[in-house]
Amino acid sequence: MHDLQCEGLTKQFGRHIAVNNVSFDVPRGSFFSILGPSGCGKTTLMRMIAGFEEPTSGDIRIKGTSVISTPPNKRSVKMVFQHLALFPMMNVGENIAYGLRCRGESKADIARKVTAVLDRISLPGVAEKQVSQLSGGQKQRIAIARCMVLEPDVLLLDEPLGALDLKLRERMKIELKLLQNQFNTTFLYITHDQSEALVMSDNVAVMNAGRFEQIGSPQELYNNPRTGFVAGFVGDNNRWPGRVVTIAGGEARVELDAGGEVIATVSDGNVRAGAKVEVFVRPETISLGEGKDGNRLSGAVDSLLFNGANSRVLVRTTGGNLIEVSHAVMDGSLSVKPGDKSDISWRREHCLCFSVAG
What we know:
There is one protein chain. By secondary structure, this protein is of the alpha+beta class. It folds into 2 domains: 2-225, Rossmann fold; 236-355, CATH 2.40.50.140. It contains 8 helices and 20 strands. The chain has a 6-stranded mixed beta sheet with strand order 6-7-8-3-9-10, sandwiched between helices. The protein is globular. The two termini are 44 Å apart.
């Protein structure tokens, strides 16, 4: 069963096509994210689902029923915005109760539901507090509670963590996933932050220029990207241009523009001998020193970047490429230093190549 189905959705503003023939299904009770850069059409897509924009063509179904002609306030969909839009003149309880009052529910039912939803978001007893007295994370949970008390089939979240500081944003990623499990409601989340999408989602759609490039689990997108855009946008990657010399057995021998040759897995059907390609290798798959098999390039250590578990060694190859190599341990035991000669190596299956135009 699907709580949300979109079929052939298109939105055109004059000559500009913001959303171009997008189709997808969101299973009941799942966390589905739409990930893409600014301007790719993800907010327009969400506004069509909420009913704030009318599609140029296509259909939107909530639990199997089309809502194209249904106004926003009649759809079983609620939306949490980036800036939350809590009412500053109302206390917490009044904010949560607002939608229930608009529906004409009794005072007794409203009080019961407000108390229950505050318990579920682990903020009991804050109904009398003013919004200004809450922390950023508490405001986030109250904004979600205000929607969830109305028991929507789908909750839409439009970059809700964008205004939070980094530390709070990291904590709220975990809290949002826990809240989604707690309410067992379908969450549709849009973001340009790949970490948010990968950490929280059951499935992610990567959007580019109005279209979905790929839909899959975070693991699928990270380990098996189908396009160069997905490979470059999801996770960190070293990325080098080159030209295919030969192809055999699903692998291409690629001559890099900056010098050197590598063997890469052919990742799309447009890769041919002589074709221009981009090669992608993730930093965590690369080792310092010469490997027994696979790919190898020679260079020198350019610099060491300390960032705890995400620390990197930057190696500049003899051809001039600057390559990031993951190295989590920088406690003084790392033997290399800037200026040292160092080979780098990685296995062939960790090297992907995609065709490029031209």
